[in-house]
């Protein structure tokens, strides 16, 4: 199993990634949100590969996530933040099921806070993804959050699968450019008034949220990290 890790011994917050590109983004965010707080990072792209090839019900995938949780607890982490939207729900579920085995460790998916913020704008949402495997977990989370808020979710999806080839090739500029064009076309075609907010379903899209859009465009890294920091501070 391939694993890349950078783990300060004192880190109580560990981030589980499926691409190394996320490390710099979350380190920069941490310097803004909690200056001086050490983070630990684990990069396990094979977990996303398993999800895409075998589905989230894969026994091998679940075993891999259980091992990641065990490693996180052994390292002294109190909170594990999964930055992969495809895997986040499964990571939360496996952590909850293993609370007795890993006492003191909580897991959180990076897109949960983003979904809550999006629904605060209204129930008519456009979910943008470059991977098919990301859509079902994101929509499932949105539905659960909407029901808890007493809202009737009206979600549409925009799958920009051609952008993923750029991401895998390390062409971030091409990846973002492809997504940008697709999103602008989608908003123009639907009419801005038909959408309350846009969710960028993958953390790798976060830069797009900083651009000028006719409707609110939300990304997961900043609110997700803020939620993880709050959980860490609460000691729950």
UniProtKB/TrEMBL annotation:
Protein name per the record: Asp/Glu/hydantoin racemase
Species for this entry: Roseateles aquae
């Amino acid at each position: 199993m391939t694993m890349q890790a950078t783990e300060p011994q004192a880190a109580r917050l560990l981030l589980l990634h499926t691409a190394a590109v996320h490390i710099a983004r979350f380190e920069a965010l941490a310097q803004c949100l909690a200056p001086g707080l050490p983070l630990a990072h684990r990069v396990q792209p094979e977990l996303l590969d398993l999800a895409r090839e075998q589905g989230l019900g894969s026994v091998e995938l679940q075993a891999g996530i259980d091992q990641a949780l065990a490693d996180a607890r052994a390292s002294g982490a109190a909170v594990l933040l999964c930055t992969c939207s495809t895997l986040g729900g499964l990571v939360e579920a496996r952590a909850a099921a293993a609370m007795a085995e890993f006492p003191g460790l909580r897991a959180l998916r990076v897109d949960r806070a983003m979904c809550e913020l999006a629904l605060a704008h209204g129930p008519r949402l456009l979910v943008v993804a470059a991977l098919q495997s990301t859509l079902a977990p994101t929509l499932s989370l949105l539905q659960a959050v909407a029901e808890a808020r007493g809202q009737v979710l009206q979600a549409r999806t925009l799958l920009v699968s051609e952008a993923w080839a750029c991401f895998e090739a390390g062409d971030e500029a091409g990846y973002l450019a492809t997504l940008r064009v697709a999103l602008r076309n989608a908003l123009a075609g639907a009419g801005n008034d038909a959408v309350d907010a846009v969710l960028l379903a993958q953390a790798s899209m976060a830069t797009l949220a900083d651009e000028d859009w006719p409707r609110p465009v939300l990304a997961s890294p900043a609110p997700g990290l803020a939620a993880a920091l709050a959980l860490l501070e609460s000691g729950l």
